[in-house]
Amino acid sequence: MSTRPSLKFPRHGVVGVAAAVALMIGLAGCATPSVSPSGSATPSVSPTPGAASPRPIFPVGCEQVLKTSAAQSAITPTVSLRVDEGTMPTSLLEAAYRQTGGLDCDWTASSTNSDGRADGVYLVVVPDSLDALKEYQKLSSVDGSAQCLPSSGTCWADFAVGTSWVSLSASDSGTAPTAPAFASLVSEVTTSLTAATPTHDAWVPPSGSFSGSYFCDRTSAVAAHLQSVVGAAPDLSAGGTGGGPGTDVTAFQKTGAASCPWLFSKAATDDVELDVTTLPGGAWSIAGMNEWRVRPGGGTALASVSVAGADAARAGCATYGCSGYLSYRHSLISVGLNAPMSVSDFTTLLGKLLAGVS
């Protein structure tokens, strides 16, 4: 039984009921399955390679889908649009949402509540994900209608607009959003997206982008490599439990992201978790990466560091462990380690991690 804190996924926008109440989920297994195309009430677009970074396939952005004034009226006048299609992602998941051609929007207050989340409105739109939404609704026994939980000050809804999965939540730790107020937000988002026929091509990662599947390969060669990096033998029987369904897992599937968790037992009460998550083509977002993978986080921004083999890197270490992001072969790699060490030692570890990649 480990006494160390668990790693957390990069920031979640909205992932349905569970995320409306809590943001943390367990480590997911290697998530690289493809998403089956679904019947489309929304015209599909053909992918075109070559763009330096992704953009929404819709002709509207966050403010056009939901006015800030509507969020302020429903939640609190102190919220403002802080994350939209023009801001740089701060986590690998945010970058994955962008690469689906969808939207990831936050209208939040400047301060956070006791669980580290700011009060406000959170919106995620993942295009061409109707089948995944239906699976989520079936397994979660929900039908897409809005739900509110006054005791936690939250409301949420996961519903379809055309073939897009729309996930919307609102939270206010002071006064819970009323059901009618939240229903008005759902209505505005639905109306705006219904009128927004996709006009842009889906983004395609650069050719030769690193897939990250190497880090999910539980062969003896990879295990030996990671043992040399961490300094302890990995437990090959301890892997991820699988993910989802949720908008996060769906975005990972659509973008080919691979989340590869490893457990190392240095002592009976001192397990070490290492999670390496790769977003193919995600290197465009490295400059904004600032999400701590270890909870509680360090409370300070991650800093640019030099890592052997990486084109660029950001990292930080705190009492509970270290978090890092690497730009490598056009892709973005997120690394979380719940073992405290100096930033210098952690950057050395990250270099060793890349050095053994085949």
Produce the secondary structure layout.
Elements: H1 17-21, E1 48-49, H2 62-65, H3 68-74, E2 80-83, H4 92-99, E3 103-108, E4 120-126, H5 130-140, E5 147-149, E6 154-161, E7 164-171, H6 179-194, E8 203-204, H7 220-230, H8 247-255, E9 258-265, E10 271-279, E11 303-304, E12 312-318, E13 321-328, E14 331-337, H9 343-355
Parallel strand pairs: 1-8
Antiparallel strand pairs: 2-3, 3-4, 4-7, 5-6, 6-7, 9-10, 10-14, 11-12, 12-13, 13-14
What does this structure look like?
- The protein is α+β, with helices and mostly antiparallel strands and 358 residues long.
- The chain has helices at 17-21, 62-65, 68-74, 92-99, 130-140, 179-194, 220-230, 247-255, 343-355; strands at 48-49, 80-83, 103-108, 120-126, 147-149, 154-161, 164-171, 203-204, 258-265, 271-279, 303-304, 312-318, 321-328, 331-337.
- Strands 2-3-4-7-6-5 form a six-stranded antiparallel β-sheet, sandwiched between helices. The protein has a six-stranded antiparallel β-sheet with strand order 9-10-14-13-12-11, with helices on both faces.
- Strand 11 (303-304) and strand 12 (312-318) form a beta hairpin.
- Helix 4 (92-99) crosses helix 8 and helix 7 (220-230) packs antiparallel against helix 9 (343-355).
- The longest helix has 16 residues, at 179-194.
- The two termini are 33 Å apart.
Strand/helix succession: HEHHEHEEHEEEHEHHEEEEEEH
N- and C-termini, Cα separation: 33 Å
Q: Fraction of residues in helices?
A: 10-25%
Biggest β-sheet description: 6 strands, antiparallel
Residue share in β-strands: 15-25%
Strand tally is 14
Number of helices: 9
